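STRUCTURE:
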C-alpha cells in the first residue's frame, strides 16, 4: 500500500508545494491502494475493487437504471429529486445556494451577454441535451447563476470531513494544481506563459489557475455564453488582476485559436459531461494547441474511486438522471485515448476521494517533427 502525504491547511494554496512521496510520480498500479492521506489523520482517498462502478457502463444494473431514466415520468421525478437533493445538501453544508443564486439573477449580469456571446457559434448536438436537471442544460441563466454554489457543493461532497466548504475547496483545487505543477516541473520545466482553461464555466477553475500562475496570460473558454457572462460579471466585481482573464465563447473541439500557443491546457470537470466522440475531439484540439513541452491537465470523476463505486442506488440513479453521458465517460479508457491522440507519458492520480487528475505533456519529440 502506498501513501501520499499531502500536508494541507486552509491556506494550502498559499503554500502550494508540500512534500510528496515518490508515489505521486508513479503510474497507479491496478490494485487497491490509498492515494491521499492527511498529514495528521488516516487516509481519505482509496481506490475501489473495480475498474468502473457497477452502476455505470454496460452492466445489467446500469442498463436497468438507463431504462428507468428513459421513461419520461420517472425521469421528471428524478430531475425534481436531484435538484432538491443538490440544494438541500449544499445548504446543509452552509453553502448559501439560494442567496448566491439570487444575487446573480438580480444583478446586471445580463449586460455581459452582448460582449461575450459569439452569435455565429454552432453548438454540438450533445450540448443541447438537458443537463444537471436543467431543461436547457448549460444554456440558461438559472444554470449559470447556480454554477458556483454547485461547484462548492462538489468540493464538500468530495472531502466531506473537511471543517468547512472553503477548506474542502482549497484541498480539492490545491491537490489538482499541485498535480499539474509536479507534472510540468518534472517533464517540461519551461515557464508557463499561456494557459487555456477549456470548459471554464463561470470561471472558478480559471481563477485558481490565474492565482497559481500570476504572470501567465489566462484564457477561459466555454460553450455557454450564460456561464461566461457570469464569469465576466464576477471579474468586474473583483479587484483588478495583474493578469486579467480573457473569456472566449467557443467549442473546445474547434477553438480557432492558433496551434502551439499554450503551455498549459486544462479541462476541469468537463469530460464527464461529454460523449466519447467529443472527449476525443477535445483531446485532439488540446494536443494541437499545446507548445512542445506543454502540459495537458484533465480532472474529473475517477471510475476507480471507492466512494463513487459505493454510491447508494438512490444517489447513483439521481446522478445518472442529470448526466446524460456519464456511461460513455466511464466506459472510455481515458489514458488509452490520450495515448491514441499522441500523448506519451500519461500520469493519473486520485487527487481526492472522488476525482482523478490526469496529466501529460507534448513530447519535445514534436519539436523535431514540426521543424
Ligand atoms: C462542470 S463545468 C466545468 C467547471 C469548471 N471547469 C470548474 O472547474 O469549476 C463543465 C463545463 O464544460 C463546458 N463544456 C462542455 N462541452 C464543451 C465544449 N465542447 N467546449 C467548451 N466547453 C464545453 C460546459 O459548458 C460547462 O461549463
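SEQUENCE:
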Amino acid at each position: 500500500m502506498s501513501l501520499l502525504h499531502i500536508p494541507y491547511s486552509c491556506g494550502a494554496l498559499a503554500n502550494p508545494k508540500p512534500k510528496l512521496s515518490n508515489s505521486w510520480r508513479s503510474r497507479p498500479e491496478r490494485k487497491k491502494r490509498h492515494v491521499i492521506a492527511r498529514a495528521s489523520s488516516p487516509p481519505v482517498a482509496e481506490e475501489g475493487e473495480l475498474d468502473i462502478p457497477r452502476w455505470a457502463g454496460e452492466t445489467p444494473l446500469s442498463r436497468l437504471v438507463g431504462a428507468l431514466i428513459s421513461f419520461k415520468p420517472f425521469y421528471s421525478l428524478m430531475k425534481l429529486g436531484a435538484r432538491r437533493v443538490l440544494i438541500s445538501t449544499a445548504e446543509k453544508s452552509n453553502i448559501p445556494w439560494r442567496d448566491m443564486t439570487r444575487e446573480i439573477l438580480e444583478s446586471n449580469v445580463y449586460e455581459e451577454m452582448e460582449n461575450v456571446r459569439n452569435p455565429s457559434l454552432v453548438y454540438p448536438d450533445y450540448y443541447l441535451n438537458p443537463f444537471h436537471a436543467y431543461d436547457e442544460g448549460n444554456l440558461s441563466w438559472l444554470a449559470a447563476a447556480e454554477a458556483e454554489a454547485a461547484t462548492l457543493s462538489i468540493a464538500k461532497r468530495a472531502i466531506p470531513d473537511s471543517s468547512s466548504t472553503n477548506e474542502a475547496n482549497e484541498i480539492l483545487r490545491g491537490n489538482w494544481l499541485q498535480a499539474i505543477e509536479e507534472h510540468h516541473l518534472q517533464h517540461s520545466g519551461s515557464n508557463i506563459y499561456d494557459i487555456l482553461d477549456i470548459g471554464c464555466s463561470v470561471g472558478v477553475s480559471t481563477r485558481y489557475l490565474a492565482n497559481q500562475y500570476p504572470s501567465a496570460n489566462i484564457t477561459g473558454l466555454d460553450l455557454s455564453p450564460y456561464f461566461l457572462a457570469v464569469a465576466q460579471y464576477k471579474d468586474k466585481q473583483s479587484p483588478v488582476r495583474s493578469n486579467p482573464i480573457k473569456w472566449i465563447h467557443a467549442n473546445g473541439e474547434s477553438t480557432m485559436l492558433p496551434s502551439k500557443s499554450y503551455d498549459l491546457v486544462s479541462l476541469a470537470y468537463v469530460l464527464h459531461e461529454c460523449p466519447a466522440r467529443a472527449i476525443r475531439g477535445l483531446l485532439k484540439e488540446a494536443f494541437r494547441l499545446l507548445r512542445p513541452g506543454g502540459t495537458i491537465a484533465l480532472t474529473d470523476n475517477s471510475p476507480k474511486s471507492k466512494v463513487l463505486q459505493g454510491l447508494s442506488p438512490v444517489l447513483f440513479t439521481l446522478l445518472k438522471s442529470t448526466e446524460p453521458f456519464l456511461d460513455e465517460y466511464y466506459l472510455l479508457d481515458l489514458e488509452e485515448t490520450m495515448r491514441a491522440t499522441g500523448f506519451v507519458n500519461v500520469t493519473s492520480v486520485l487527487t481526492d476521494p472522488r476525482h482523478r487528475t490526469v496529466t501529460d505533456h507534448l513530447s519535445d519529440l514534436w519539436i523535431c517533427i514540426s521543424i
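REMARK: The chain is about 40% helix and 15% strand.
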